[in-house]
Amino acid sequence: MPESSLTSTALRSLGAGLALGTVAMLSIARTDAQAIAGHNSNAPVSYAADRIELQDRQNRVVLSGNVAINQAGLNLRAARTTVAYTDAGSLKIQRIDATGGVQVTRGDESARGDVAIYDFNRRIITMAGNVALRRGSDTLNGGRLTIDLASGVSSVDGRAGGGSSAVGAPVGSSTGGGRVTGTFSVPKKSN
After folding, report:
1. The predicted structure's pLDDT at residue 191
2. Is the separation of the CB atoms in 73 and 107 below 8 Å?
């Protein structure tokens, strides 16, 4: 086979591999958001922690030590959380801020990061700092993840500060050096 033919075949294979990779990476982010998009943010919230402190005048509850929060199958684990609420006749959660090895799971999908903010009013979950999404053997890593529960759209930025202005999150480092990275499984070609 001539060298130019080998080169063009290699380039076509590389192009096809990159196209498949891009589609697979986008599908991880889209599927994760779609799975969570149907989440009922009005469902009751249950919680457990080693210590709970009610700060009634500030309308917040601080949970610390092995914090576990669950809402309709969406599970959050962290070292510490602050739950802000309103008390206009009945308690209504406004926002949950979580820090310290934050892990969010739903079904077989998981996301982790240094910090997370769940804004109940805007229906937006933001994770920042060393963010990693996992679904089976597929991974997506970055500095900041934003999931809009209302629209089902999610985005991953390379840096924790991100390019999105959804919810202000502290700037942290990312494992990808300011870039979004990941791995994906390539379907085996059947003969």
Report:
1. 67
2. yes
Please tell me the pTM assigned to this model.
0.69
Residues of the chain with pLDDT under 50: 3-34, 163-176
How far apart are the C-alpha atoms of 144 and 146, rounded to whole Å? 7
One-character DSSP codes across 141-160: EEEEEEEETTT--EEEESST
Helices (H), the chain: 3-37
Count Cβ neighbours within 10 Å for each residue of 6-38 and write b for 16 or more, e otherwise.
eeeeeeeeeeeeeeeeeebbeebbeebbebbbe
Token digits for 149? 């529960």
Task: Classify residue 123 by burial, with Cβ atoms within 10 Å: 0-12, 13-18, 19+.
Answer: middle
- Using one digit for the tens of pLDDT, what is the confidence trace for 9-27? 333 333 333 333 333 344 4
Token pair belonging to 67: 């914090």
Query: In whole angstroms, what is the distance from residue 168 CA to residue 161 CA?
Result: 8
